[in-house]
Amino acid sequence: MYNTRTFTDKFFLVIKGLCMGAANKVPGVSGGIVAFVAGFYEEFIYSLQKVNGKAFKLLLNGRFKSFFRYINGTFLSLLIFGMLVSYFSVSKLLDYFLAQKELFVWAAFFGMILGSIYYISKDFEHWNRKTIIAGLIGLIVGISISFLNPAKENDNLFFIFVCGMISVSGMTLPGLSGSFILILLGNYVLLLVDSVNSLYDTFAEILRGDFSFTSNSERLHTLTILAVFTAGSATGLVSLSHLLTYVLKHFKHITTAVIIGFITGSLGVVWPWKRTIFKTDVSGELILDSNGKEIISNYERFFPDLGSMETWWAIFFIAFGVAILLLLDWYGKNRKEAELTM
């Protein structure tokens, strides 16, 4: 099945990667939701689970084709390619709209998550005492995470490794935003702003033939942090996929119920009507990151003013977000029917 992908299938895999990459970057939104709703979540988890001892043996023995086939390489490489492209294109566009029309962007995401709850739960016919309890646990955990207060920044390398393992959960666990988890851990700016900027600056200097960064202790420390974070992310991605593969095989209905509850609970994170609380120093002055931008500390949520035209535009974008998921549902049904008639 994996080796008979058409050009259209491959094209849409890159598009799905673009969507996952954009979702992973926004605090409160999970790339795992994209995978779940777009119908490739299980294949994604099972493919990651194939990155194991046997795969490394094939690689070390020079059996590259066998290695690529074993880990479902076409699927993973196209998806990861889409994610990488997203970080330099779609996510930049998203940053622009968040800066210009933040309320409408959050409203659209809120609508998409509402739509994804409907999409996931509409065909779930396994509600019983166990799955209801599992769903409630997921709901409580999701709500609890939404209202946690962030910790202080911590550049301890062991903690950075743990941050990498936890933050990557946004790719593998629908409803859990890796970016938002990094805000709660206090290291969002350090790991997704400062470290990435240091890497860009280093590459730019190398291309100019400038290797002065090798004597810059602060730059080397930041690059070490990024390397440890990347190693933690890779470790978390593979280890979580093994755990999720086992859970999906043995407790599929309970896992789905937990995911439905968790995504529902996570709606608090993407509630459109909120004020951003920025970090300040002891004198009340705003603290800026290496890009000169304010650092998000948390959000203060409030109910909208129904007399405001802006509120009704936001409600329109919520409906628009729901409509996107309904269109995906319609597309999926039509595609299945077309495959059955072939």
Instruction: Kindly provide the radius of gyration, computed on alpha-carbon positions and rounded to a whole number of angstroms.
Output: 21 Å
Shape: globular
Global mean pLDDT = 81
Series of secondary-structure elements, N-terminal to C-terminal: HHHHHHHHHHHHHHHEEH
Main sheet: which strands, in order across? Answer: 1-2
| Number of E-type strands | 2
End-to-end span in angstroms?
A: 16 Å
Largest sheet: 2 strands, antiparallel
Beta-strand content: under 5%
Structural class: mainly alpha
Helix run count: 16
Model regions low in confidence, pLDDT < 50 over at least 5 residues: none
Oligomer: single chain
Assign a percent range to the helix content.
55-70%
Protein name: DUF368 domain-containing protein
Pfam families: VCA0040-like (PF04018)
InterPro entries: VCA0040-like
Transmembrane segments: 67-88, 103-120, 132-151, 157-173, 220-247, 254-273, 312-332
Jot down its keywords.
single chain, 342 residues, mainly alpha, two-stranded antiparallel sheet, globular
Descriptive overview:
This is DUF368 domain-containing protein. By secondary structure, this protein is mainly alpha-helical. It has a domain at 128-302. Strands 1-2 form a two-stranded antiparallel sheet. The two termini are 16 Å apart. It has helices at 7-25, 31-37, 41-49, 53-60, 64-70, 73-88, 90-100, 102-121, 129-146, 157-167, 169-172, 178-185, 188-207, 217-250, 252-265, 309-341; strands at 274-278, 296-301.
